[in-house]
Automatic annotation (TrEMBL):
This is aldehyde dehydrogenase (NAD(+)). It comes from the Bacteria. Belongs to the aldehyde dehydrogenase family. GO terms for molecular function: aldehyde dehydrogenase (NAD+) activity. It catalyses: an aldehyde + NAD(+) + H2O = a carboxylate + NADH + 2 H(+). Its EC number is 1.2.1.3. Coiled coil: none annotated. InterPro entries: Ald_DH/histidinol_DH, Ald_DH_C, Ald_DH_CS_CYS, Ald_DH_CS_GLU, Ald_DH_N, Aldehyde_DH_dom. Pfam families: Aldedh. It comes from Cystobacter fuscus (strain ATCC 25194 / DSM 2262 / NBRC 100088 / M29). Residues 14-469 form the Aldehyde dehydrogenase domain. The keyword Oxidoreductase applies. Keywords: Oxidoreductase. The active site is at 244.
Amino acid sequence: MERIEQIYIDGAFVTPHGDEWFNLFNPATEEVIGQVRLADAEDARRAIAAAKRALPAFSRTTRAERLAMLERMRAAVAAREDELLEAVIKEYGAPSSRSRWMARHAHQVIGEVAEVLARYDFERQAGTARVVMQPLGVAGLITPWNNDAGFICGKLATALAAGCTAVLKPSEMSAIQTRIITQALHEAGLPPGVFNIVTGRGDVVGAEISASPDVAKISFTGSTVVGKTILRTGAETLKRVTLELGGKSPMVVLDDADFTTAVPLAVQAGFMNSGQACIAGTRILVPASRQAEFESLLAREVRATKSGDPRDADTAIGPMVSAKQWERVQRYIRLGINEGARLLVGGEGRPEGMKRGWCVKPTVFTDVRNDMTIAREEIFGPVLSLITYRDEDEAVAIANDTLYGLHGYVVSGDPHRGARVAARLEAGRVLVNTLAHEPKAPFGGFKQSGLGRENGPYGLEAYLEPKAVVVAA
């Protein structure tokens, strides 16, 4: 059993002031596989102080110096890909269809940030003024458990590219993955204090970072409820805040779509990352005139989708990350039944033959109304809702009738029509006839799916403040 006894502050691995131990589980077996000693508020203050000391020198580094640092980081994380892959499977339960992508994404995202930095114009003319984009200051980066290494590396690389120093609070549930990434980043040889990683609870370490007057910027990925708390706390010191929060994304299948293509796409969009994805397309909108046809194909596709052991090559859906998350998904399945939705596939309990592990039966409800709880709230598991519409206008109205607006999907036999419908959806990103990721495009949400954008120059500018300088002739 692994014991993780150190955090990373001021360029060194140190013993936390905090003395609480947190159990780490293998979600496929429910066995305890490790323990992590959690940082506390005192540790967070030490990390913030280290980042503050490092800021003056680091903020003056050149583009070339930062690019060299990012390349060292990328290479060091890439060298740990196989070790990280094993941790992703064992600690998080990601199946083979997802885990290798996650392990690679951790170093690929650093390279993507470097490409942005290499081309970004930090100075520009505005009339008689010279506008300089300067780093905000110390950045507090708070990351979730559903892609631990990718979020750590992406947020940190962006902050450093801008010239900010950083304090990271990763999820305590992903401590083994965090240890691997921290060791790799240490080997990259960045100046002490430039980045600090303090694993702890959100209501302790996260709260300290959010409230600190020495933190100028917060970037948080997680739930909408926590995001609102961070926003309220950060308002006291007028922090710049980027929030990437929840979603209830629509998958709009238009009446001209080829269902043999649309159904597999809908299943992949809804069940991606075992359903534990903020961008999952969990509301499938289909024309009422073709409901029975779609249901038949969908039921067949979902029944062929295996939920189970992440090490099995045939597994598409791994376990939920924790017992708490498993119980949450079960509760929503019961709610769907109680609200009168018709269970098309799946239901409560573990997949057939499973006695242990936090796996969920791939579940689809049909005859769902958009005002039902399962259509309104983010479940964060492999549970889909099938909703019918009469015409295109009603499809758009249902798709937009949500508190969220992170992502959307459209499937159409006519890509131009699909693009027109996509333009009407209230979402930060809409994919038409594809699930492809574009790292250069902005990522973030409308409405209660968040504030601000990540990725590309849009993400870099979230860590920069424009300063106008006018000099008399």
